[in-house]
Amino acid sequence: MARSSSCSIACPPDPRYIDSVAVSKGGRIVLIVASIVVIGAGIKLAAPLLVPVLVAAFIAIVTGPLVMWLCDKGVPRLLAVLSGLLLDVTAGAALGFPLAGAVATFTERVPGYASKLSGQLDDLEHWLAGQGLHLESVFDFSEPAWMLNLATTMAQYAASFVSQMVLVLLIVAFMLFESTGLREKLARIATPGQIQELSDAAREVNTYLVAKTVMSLLTGVLVFLWCLWRGVDVPVLWGLLAYLLNYIPTVGQIIAAVPAISLALIQFGPGQALVVAAGFGGINLAIGAVEPRVMGQALGLSPLVVLVSMVVWGWLLGPVGALVSAPLTMVIKHSLAHSDELRWLAELLGPSPRPAGKSKQQNPDAADELSRA
Predict the structure, then answer these.
(1) Of 52, 83, 202, 290, which residue has the fewest beta carbons closer than 10 angstroms?
(2) Please, are residues 167 and 52 in contact by the beta-carbon 8 Å criterion?
């Protein structure tokens, strides 16, 4: 017994044990990657079911505080839920009906836009021929099929949006009913610390969605007024598009500006198109200067993570996934932040600290913690 104990103290670790530890860490990484792939494939397949549920969840998160406040004031639960649902229906109608009408108007005018574009391309071809450059026609833009296909796709998305809103509002109604008794349920199954974590996550997402909705509404109104003043056709469509795409941080407004500027180019030519583009740039700069002060650090994601999450969620869930990519990634980041083993991933998803030297002084063991993870 003495010999074995002394050998266990003096002998170095068995190399096979070290290899098994390394293999276990490598196998853990492979397992995590495989789990992410499997979960992503499941989300991709279940997208038609998940999209209305996710949209309903975010609407319920925004409306829930109002319902809870009414219940705390003594309003009956049914009346409080109906009040929140009425607010959601009003907001959905204010968005859906103008969007459907604007898309229909744009579709009707597509043949005229195609004809103007064909004439402009003919003039460009003649001008290039006068400069000694002869270009063969690759595509006949006098046939409006390509623009009709684009307009049809937009109309299909608008119709799908309006039709799914009925299902979404039904899910929202049940979610709001459940939210009124959620605190009692959580008190039975969760610890106070877990309840606080859930409350913090819901408050963070709610703050972001409310602030983003206000700023998106302001952006949409400014874009509508600018397009109306410059004479761009269907300004309601471009204002609503700017409102919706502003939910996509960083690149949303760039995407929203492209169709309106393209239409201005077809209608008026390059000069007015540049003026319209300058207006969009001014609006984006103004909103970009005001938005951080209104929202503070509600987003808490690096610009690269925002862009990558938009691509990933857009691929998994379609256009709606791109719109809700930021709050979805926020929820994931918040979940990682409350895990001892995965907290370093939440730090990587967050924005870079402003004073780099100061952050190192405040957390000198960050690199060691990351290497250990």
Answers:
(1) 290
(2) yes
